[in-house]
TrEMBL record:
<dbReference type="InterPro" id="IPR020583">
    <property type="entry name" value="Inositol_monoP_metal-BS"/>
</dbReference>
<keyword id="KW-0378">Hydrolase</keyword>
<feature type="binding site">
    <location>
        <position position="100"/>
    </location>
    <ligand>
        <name>Mg(2+)</name>
    </ligand>
</feature>
<feature type="binding site">
    <location>
        <position position="82"/>
    </location>
    <ligand>
        <name>Mg(2+)</name>
    </ligand>
</feature>
<dbReference type="InterPro" id="IPR020550">
    <property type="entry name" value="Inositol_monophosphatase_CS"/>
</dbReference>
<protein>
    <recommendedName>
        <fullName>Inositol-1-monophosphatase</fullName>
        <ecNumber>3.1.3.25</ecNumber>
    </recommendedName>
</protein>
<comment type="similarity">
    <text>Belongs to the inositol monophosphatase superfamily.</text>
</comment>
<dbReference type="GO" id="GO:0006020">
    <property type="term" value="P:inositol metabolic process"/>
</dbReference>
<dbReference type="GO" id="GO:0046854">
    <property type="term" value="P:phosphatidylinositol phosphate biosynthetic process"/>
</dbReference>
<dbReference type="InterPro" id="IPR000760">
    <property type="entry name" value="Inositol_monophosphatase-like"/>
</dbReference>
<dbReference type="InterPro" id="IPR022337">
    <property type="entry name" value="Inositol_monophosphatase_SuhB"/>
</dbReference>
<keyword id="KW-0460">Magnesium</keyword>
<dbReference type="GO" id="GO:0007165">
    <property type="term" value="P:signal transduction"/>
</dbReference>
<feature type="binding site">
    <location>
        <position position="238"/>
    </location>
    <ligand>
        <name>Mg(2+)</name>
    </ligand>
</feature>
<feature type="binding site">
    <location>
        <position position="97"/>
    </location>
    <ligand>
        <name>Mg(2+)</name>
    </ligand>
</feature>
<dbReference type="GO" id="GO:0046872">
    <property type="term" value="F:metal ion binding"/>
</dbReference>
<keyword id="KW-0479">Metal-binding</keyword>
Length: 293
């Protein structure tokens, strides 16, 4: 039975500050395990989930540490995690990537992060105002243990890097923009859509970067290091935290198809408002359209 409108109006707002504190603690717990393995990578047991899709005990143990903290601190929320799965339940669900940039980590490239986000379901109250009209990322944490950079955000409040407010760049046009992206590496079914967008970006911008960690690409876009970022074929936990961080930094982070309320399908386009609009226009001629349902 659906709750009545009167019951919804009296719903207690979610405590997003407490959720953020839990996520920050969980991210540090996961990162501590990653860093304990970072100098002993040759000893890691690595499994192949699929072509170019690797997992090690570092991923699994870091995820377990993250989940332990979140279950203890926020037992009322569901959990969806990359390695152990889970399900959407309650008024909000955590989306966890314990090691975004696994290939970088395993090759000793110091560019990877723990990514944790809380997605509130449509109808949840998060700020004392009207219930959310759609599923919405409301808390995001991306922690880069190599640089000791903690990016975080709360819906409607703001975004920070190590306690300092961040904002997307003010670059007005693609001509002056540096973009980030990710190449197809696991699922090549969308390569014919993606490759023309890369060709256009190379020819229309100041430069394109591919560093191999989607959560950090979004966090760096929020901090103004990149002017925009787009990628296809990701997983929800890759983009959940970065989406709210970019949005709270004054930018746009959207489903490339314009169907979902956040890029849960893994087709993400982001940047400051001008660059995001230009990126969407650049991508549109090459995109095979997806319809709702």
């Amino acid at each position: 039975m659906q709750p009545s409108a009167q019951a919804a109006s009296h719903q207690v707002p979610m405590d997003l500050c407490a959720a953020l504190d839990a996520a920050v603690n969980a991210a540090h717990a996961g990162a501590a395990i990653l860093q304990s393995y970072a100098h002993h990578r040759a000893d890691l047991v690595i499994d192949r989930k699929a072509r170019n899709d690797l997992v090690s005990q570092a991923d699994r143990e870091a995820e377990a540490a993250v989940i332990e903290v979140l279950r203890e601190r926020t037992p009322q929320y569901g959990i969806v995690a990359e390695e152990t799965g889970g399900k959407v339940e309650g008024e909000a669900t955590w989306y966890i990537d314990p090691l975004d940039g696994t290939t970088n980590f395993l090759h000793g490239i110091p560019h990877y992060a723990v990514s944790i986000a809380l997605i509130a379901r449509a109808g949840a109250k998060v700020d004392g105002g009207a219930p959310l009209a759609a599923d919405t990322p409301v808390v995001g944490v991306v922690y880069d243990p190599c640089r000791e950079e903690l990016f975080n955000a709360i819906h409607g409040v703001g975004a920070w890097l190590n306690g300092h407010r961040i904002a997307c760049s003010r670059t007005p046009s693609l001509d002056d923009a540096v973009l980030a992206t990710g190449f197809p590496f696991r699922d090549f079914s969308f390569a014919q859509q993606y490759m023309p967008t890369l060709h256009d970006a190379i020819n229309q911008t100041r430069g394109v970067r591919r560093l191999g960690a989607a959560a950090l690409d979004l966090a760096w876009t929020a901090a103004g290091r990149y002017d925009g970022y787009w990628e296809m074929g990701l997983a929800p936990w890759d983009v959940a935290a970065g989406t709210v961080i970019v949005r709270e930094a004054g930018g746009v982070a959207e489903d490339m198809h314009g169907v979902d309320s956040w890029p849960i399908g893994g087709y993400v386009v982001s940047g400051n408002k001008d660059i995001a609009a230009a990126l969407k226009a650049m991508i549109a001629p090459h995109l095979v359209r997806k319809t709702a349902g």
